Structure formats: structure tokens, C-alpha cells
Amino acid sequence: MIEFKLPSLGADMDEGTLLEWKVGVGDTVKKGQVVAVVDTSKAAVDVECWQEGSVGELLAEVGQKMPVGTVMAKLLEPGETAETIVGTPRVLPAGRAGATAAAPPPRRMISPAARKHAQEKGVDLDKVTGSGPHGAVTLEDVEHAAAGLAPPAAVLPAADKAGEMRRAIAAAMARSKREIPHYYVAEDIPLVKALAWLQAGNAKRPMAERLLPAVLLFKAVAVALKRYPELNGYWRDGGFVPAERINLGVAISLRQGGLIAPALLNADAKPLTQLMQELTDLVRRTRAGSLRSSEMSEATITVTNLGDQGSQAVFGVIYPPQVALVGFGRVTERPWAENGELKALPMVTASLSADHRVSDGHRGALFLRELADLLQRPEDLDR
Amino acid sequence: MNESEIRAVVLATLLSIAPEVETDDLRGDRPLRSQVDLDSMDWLNFLLGLNKRLKVEIPEADYARLVTLDDVVAYLMKKLGIGP
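^ Those are the sequences you sent over. The predicted structure of the assembly is below.
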């Protein structure tokens, strides 16, 4: 029997509210399949399951708020039957009143708390629409019916959501500054060759396939990281754990305020056109609130790009448990001295904030030099 | 299609990307991106939206000329062969 637990979706998420089950009892679950939609302090996230089996029991109720690590469902391994798991104690957060019955009953599923509340309030349960798994009637359904309201939508109103996101960012950033001894290095990088190469390529592309400079910058970071593994990974249990893949967490600001940094997975191994498509899709889904759990939890480093409306440079706060953050300011034309000549060139300031427990400023500076060199050979980045 | 119809399409496209915008408060002669918070991806999507709705191809070399709302409307009218 496999316990499917609510995964952590980042340092600033310690609980989530189940919005929807995407599977039912008896369904086969494949590795990587989206099985539930969970609302976090930042966004609604499609939660993937990384084990295979068939759904034996759904424990979490729609609308239920639960801490990370809560067992949400039980999956049967091949060869197991439902009987194997009947009678397993339910794992529900303390303070949660009631739940649906464990085995599928022959009658309609109504949680004990819902039934009690319905009796007290004189609510006719036959007329209540159940929002729980398999139409189970939950306490909230009864409360809403009693108040003459529509069935509950577990999503918070916008104002609460913004406040909750602010608190989540505050917690993660305060933890970062409390625990991580940051050091900072910066490098001005000429972008003449990179922008000329992009412009020439974009002139041949249809509008929808043109590349933004950000994509080239992200790819350069991912490629440079291959030689600086001490910047790509996590600080866990008092030591550094290098990451096996290079997943760039891309800081995306939300129109209503706040930000999310979902991951561009395996960014070093993808051609620019694919990265651009994935970035476009990631931004769209971040703002639409339909990110996947792997994108929320698997970033191995964060990149923040202020873009053409930003400041000249940014020195970021590392997102724990990551150990580095790369920042790009606005691309502007600036004076640049080279071979005794002064020129005006489009430039970007790249910065690195890194964890001094893991790396030193010298290595950080070499990483930025590598990044600058890569951006002088943009054609080599498109592979 | 006349100027006001094109302006309406431009504003509708803008609203699809930045739904919080009060279009009545926008000054047509001021830089659009100093009035509306549009990042590089938003701006690209705005131009792509105009491309889709009006079937106008906008070369990247022309992006720099599209600063104000009035610039955008005038540019599109020229591309569509409308107006003076």
C-alpha cells in the first residue's frame, strides 16, 4: 500500500487546501499523473503522483486544509486488493471535525459532522449537493445549505489571497536572511553580439515564435551552472546536496502583487525555441493558477530577470533550501571601455547571490565570467 | 474599420492581458508602459494579440516605435491602409 502525501511545494508552503480530486477510487495512477488540485498560499497547483498503483481510498475531502505530509489518499500496489487497507487508521490533521466513511457504503456518503450539523440546523440532507469525494456531503456543504448559500468554493477571496501570499513570502525570505549567509558579486555583460544574433533570428521567425532576450539569458545561466555545481542544489540537514538536474526557478510577478518562481525543468538541455515555448506556457499558467507540483518544488536555483521596465541591477534573496540566485537588471546602453576605446553598448548587469556556507566569492565571480563569455557566443547556446 | 474601432481593439487586447486597467484613465499620448505594468512577456503577448485580431504582421524592428497608445493606433492604421 502506498501513502500519497501532500508534497511540499516550496519553502513558503506548509499547508494546502484540496480543491479537487482528479482521480476516483479504482482508477489507475501513472507516474507523473495529476491526481489532485491543491490551493496553496500562492496558487492553485496540480499535484502529481510519482508512484504507480490504483486508487484504494481518497482520505482528504474537498475543502479540507491540511499540513504538508498529510496522507491524502492510499494507492494499491499491483496485487493488492481494497480489503488489504480497510481498517487502516485515517490520518487527518488534528482539530478537523469528521470525515467520510472509510469503505464505500451502500448509501450516500455524509460525514458524521455534516450529519450532526444537519440535524441541529434542520437541513434536509437529500437536498444538499455534496462537494466531497464521490459526492460526499461535507460539514461545509451543510453549513452553506443552512446559510442558504451555494456549495463552497474553497478558493479564498482575492484580498485574503494577497495577504496570505504576502505572509508566505515574508516567512520564506525572513528564513533565508536568518539562516543563509549571503554573498554578492556582479558583472556587467556586453550584449551586442547576443542581441544582434537574436534580432537576425527573430526577423526570420513568425511573431509567435520570436525569442525574448530573457530566454537566452536563462539558457546561459543553465549552461554555466554545469561547471559550477556548488551553486545548483540544496542546503539540507547541515550540508550541501548538489542537484542532479538544472531546473531554473523563474521569478514571475503576478498582476495582483506577489511572485511565484516555478521551474523551467532541465533548462541546460533544451534548445532556445523550446525554452521560449515553455517559458511562455509557464508564465501563462502561473498567472492563470494552473502550475504543476513538480514545477513548484523542483527548482534547483532561482533566476530573476527584471526585464526592460526594471532597475539596472538586482541583488536577490536566496529561496531556501536553494543556495544561489542569479539576477539580471534592465538592458541599457552604457559606456564600455575596450582596447583603449570607449564605446556605447547595450549591457546587462548580472548578479549572483550565493550561500557562503557552500561556495566562495571567487567561484561566484568565475561563474559570472563564464556566463559573460557564453553570452558572447549566442549561437552555441541554441543546442 | 475606422480609428475608433482600431482603438477599441487595441484596448480590448490590452485588457485581456492587464484586466485591472481603467482604460478611461489612460493617456493616449503618454508611454503606455509607464501607465500600465507590462513586462516583456506581457508586451509580446499584447503585440501577438493585435497580430491575431487584426492580421497585422509587426516586425521586431518596429517594436521600438510603439511607445504610446496613439503610436500603436497610428501604426496599425498605416499597416491596414486606413486614414490620411
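Residues 10 and 16 of chain B are 10 Å apart (CA to CA). The domain at 3-80 of chain B is CATH 1.10.1200.10 (Non-ribosomal Peptide Synthetase Peptidyl Carrier Protein; Chain A).

Shout if you want it in another format.
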